[in-house]
Each structure stands twice: as C-alpha cells, then as structure tokens.
C-alpha cells in the first residue's frame, strides 16, 4: 500500500512539473511568434478575400454553368 502511494505521488509530482513548464514556456513561444516576425514566404494555402472567384461573389451573374 505504501508503494502505491509513493508511485501516485511521483506521478502527481511529475504531472505538476510538466504542467508548470508548459504554462511558463507556452506564453514565451506565443509572444516570440507574434512579435518576432517570419522570414518564410507565405504558404499557397493562405486564405484571402482576394482569392474568391468572381462567380462566387454576391451580385455577379454566373458566366458558365456546370452541365451545359
């Protein structure tokens, strides 16, 4: 019984340390990525309002219909 309690206390302590490290490092990573900028080129999968085809914009008639 005492061995089981020791194991539980070790696991509890390990999880507490992991959570403390995670919560102290994560804000630093977020701040570094927000303020640090990036030298990478934009990905081709970036979503932009300029990438909407004209046939999908409101008020525009469809020029080509599928199936005709």
Describe this protein's structure.
The chain is 50% helix and 0% strand. The protein contains one helix and no strands. The longest helix has 34 residues, at 2-35. It is elongated. The model has no long low-confidence stretch (mean pLDDT 75).
Overall pLDDT, averaged?
Answer: 75
What's the number of helices?
1
β content, as a range?
under 5%
* Terminal CA distance: 78 Å
Number of strands: 0
Spans of at least 5 consecutive residues whose pLDDT stays below 50 are: none
CA-based shape: elongated
Query: Percent of residues in helical segments?
Result: 40-55%
What's the story with the biggest beta sheet? none
- Whole-angstrom Rg: 27 Å
User: Secondary-structure element sequence?
Assistant: H
Class by alpha and beta content: mainly alpha
Task: Quickly describe the structure.
By secondary structure, the chain is mainly α. It contains one helix and no strands.
List keywords for this structure.
single chain; 68 residues; mainly alpha; 1 helix
SSE blueprint:
Elements (H helix, E strand, L loop, with lengths): L1 H34 L33
């Amino acid at each position: 019984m005492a061995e089981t309690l020791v194991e539980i206390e070790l696991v509890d302590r390990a999880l507490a340390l992991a959570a403390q490290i995670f919560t102290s490092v994560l804000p630093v990573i977020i701040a570094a990525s927000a303020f640090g900028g990036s030298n990478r080129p934009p990905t081709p999968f970036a979503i932009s309002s300029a990438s909407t085809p004209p046939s999908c914009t409101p008020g525009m008639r469809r020029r080509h219909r599928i199936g005709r």
